[in-house]
Design goal:
Blueprint (H helix, E strand, L loop, with lengths): L2 H27 L1 H7 L8 H20 L1 H31 L5 H22 L5
Helix pairs in contact: 1-3, 2-3, 3-4, 4-5
């Protein structure tokens, strides 16, 4: 592996540890927002899904930040992003229907949905050195 490849892998890990860590904290700080993303079809209370996904994101951040567990975190991180994708789709649909959301916010909601694809591809590479 070249120095540049190693640098990219380290940068990717730092970015993802920060993203998952920040999102995990926000799940507890902005609970109502995250509750609104939980599809009604899921069993139980939305708040429990919010807390659960926040805990998972914090655990993923810790696993990605630790070089000895980083490679093992690639698949769980990717599967987690796939698992929350329906919530992002729900958000985009809700925003699309809302008269309170600007056109820019509506576009941003759909950009978030589309943006998940490169995120899946990036987290899959966390196992690379």
């Amino acid at each position: 592996m070249t120095t540049s490849e190693s640098s990219r892998a380290t940068t990717r890990a730092v970015v993802w540890a920060t993203v998952f860590g920040g999102a995990g904290i926000l799940h507890f700080a902005q609970r109502r927002f995250y509750d609104s993303l939980v599809p009604e079809e899921l069993p139980g209370e939305q708040r429990y899904w919010t807390w659960g996904s926040g805990v998972v994101e914090l655990a993923l951040a810790a696993a990605i930040a630790n070089p000895s567990t980083r490679a093992a975190s690639a698949t769980p991180a990717t599967l987690f992003l796939l698992g929350v994708w329906p919530g992002n789709i729900k958000m985009a649909l809700d925003w699309q229907k809302s008269e309170k959301k600007s056109a820019l916010m509506k576009i941003g909601g759909w950009a978030r949905v589309a943006g998940q694809v490169p995120m899946f591809l990036s987290t899959r590479k966390l196992g690379e050195k």
